[in-house]
C-alpha cells in the first residue's frame, strides 16, 4: 500500500521522496505557502547562489555539522527549481538526475566504459576537455568562449574564459609576462586616475583585476579561494585590533590609524611566528 502525502511528509526517514513531496505541498496553489507559490526561477536563483557560497564557507571553516545542513539547503534549491519546471511541463527532478548521471557516465569512459584507467591526471584533463568540446558542439556552441555561464562570480568566470582561450594558444607563455602586464595596468590606472571619468576608471580597474586572475591561473591558484582566505585573515586580524583596543577601553573610531596599525603589526608578527613553528 502506498503512503499518503501526510505519511510521506512526516516520515523522518523519507529521504528524497519526503523532500520532494514537501516541495510539492509548498507549491500547491490551493493549500501551499503563499511565499513559495509566488516564486519563479528568477526570484529563487539568488538564493541558489547564496546557498552554494554557504556550502563553500562551511567547508572553508571545516564546520562539518554545519556542512550537512548547508548541503541540504543547496539540495532544496535544486528541488525547488525542478518543481517549478515540472509545473510548467519543462522537465522533472528525475530528468535532472538522469541527465546528470548520463553526463558523468559519458565523461568517465575510463570508469564506466572500456577505456583504460592507466593514464595520468594531465591526460585525463585533456580527455575531459575533448569530451566537453564535443558536448558544446552538439549544443551548436561554436565559439571558443561559448557556454561560460554569465552568472558565475566575476573572478571565477575570468579564469574560465582565460582557460578556454589558452586551449587555442591565446595565452602568455611565461608568468613573468603576466607580471609585466599587471605593472603596466596598475601604472596606467594610477597615472590617469585624475583625468579619467568614473566609467573609464572602472574599466581600467576591471582590466587590472582580469590580469590578476590570469596571474592566479598561471600560479595554479583559485582566485576565489585565495580571496576568501584573505577576507577571513583580515576579519581575524581586525578583530584582534578591536580586542586590543577594548583592553584599553577604546573603540576603533576613538583610536588613531597609528595605534590600530601597531596592534595590526602585533598580530601579523604573531601569525608569522606561529607559521614558522609549524
UniProtKB/TrEMBL annotation:
Keywords: Hydrolase. Its EC number is 3.6.1.9. It is an enzyme of class 3 (hydrolase). Residues 40-112, 178-237 form the NTP pyrophosphohydrolase MazG-like domain. Gene3D superfamilies: MazG-like. GO terms for molecular function: nucleoside triphosphate diphosphatase activity. It holds the Pfam family MazG. PANTHER family: NUCLEOSIDE TRIPHOSPHATE PYROPHOSPHOHYDROLASE. This is Nucleoside triphosphate pyrophosphohydrolase. It comes from Aliiroseovarius salicola. The lineage of its organism: Bacteria, Pseudomonadati, Pseudomonadota, Alphaproteobacteria, Rhodobacterales.
Amino acid at each position: 500500500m502506498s503512503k499518503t502525502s501526510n505519511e510521506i511528509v512526516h516520515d523522518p526517514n523519507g529521504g528524497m521522496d519526503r523532500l520532494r513531496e514537501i516541495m510539492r505541498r509548498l507549491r500547491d496553489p490551493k493549500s501551499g505557502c503563499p511565499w513559495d507559490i509566488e516564486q519563479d526561477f528568477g526570484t529563487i536563483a539568488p538564493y541558489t547562489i547564496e546557498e552554494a557560497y554557504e556550502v563553500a564557507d562551511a567547508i572553508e571553516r571545516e564546520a562539518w555539522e554545519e556542512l550537512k545542513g548547508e548541503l541540504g539547503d543547496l539540495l532544496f534549491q535544486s528541488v525547488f527549481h525542478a518543481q517549478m519546471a515540472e509545473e510548467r511541463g519543462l522537465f522533472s527532478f528525475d530528468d535532472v538526475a538522469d541527465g546528470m548521471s548520463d553526463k558523468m557516465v559519458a565523461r568517465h569512459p575510463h570508469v564506466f566504459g572500456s577505456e583504460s584507467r592507466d593514464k595520468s591526471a594531465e591526460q585525463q584533463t585533456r580527455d575531459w576537455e575533448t569530451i566537453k568540446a564535443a558536448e558544446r558542439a552538439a549544443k551548436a556552441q561554436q565559439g571558443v568562449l561559448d557556454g561560460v555561464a554569465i552568472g558565475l562570480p566575476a573572478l571565477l568566470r575570468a579564469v574560465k574564459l582565460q582557460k578556454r582561450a589558452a586551449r587555442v594558444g591565446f595565452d602568455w607563455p611565461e608568468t613573468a609576462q603576466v607580471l609585466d602586464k599587471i605593472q603596466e595596468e596598475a601604472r596606467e590606472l594610477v597615472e590617469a586616475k585624475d583625468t579619467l571619468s568614473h566609467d573609464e576608471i572602472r574599466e581600467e580597474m576591471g582590466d587590472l583585476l582580469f590580469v590578476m586572475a590570469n596571474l592566479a591561473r598561471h600560479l595554479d591558484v583559485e582566485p576565489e579561494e585565495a580571496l576568501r582566505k584573505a577576507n577571513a585573515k583580515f576579519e581575524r586580524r581586525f578583530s584582534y585590533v578591536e580586542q586590543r583596543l577594548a583592553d584599553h577601553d577604546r573603540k576603533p573610531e576613538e583610536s588613531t590609524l597609528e595605534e590600530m596599525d601597531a596592534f595590526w603589526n602585533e598580530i601579523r608578527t604573531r601569525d608569522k611566528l606561529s607559521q614558522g613553528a609549524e
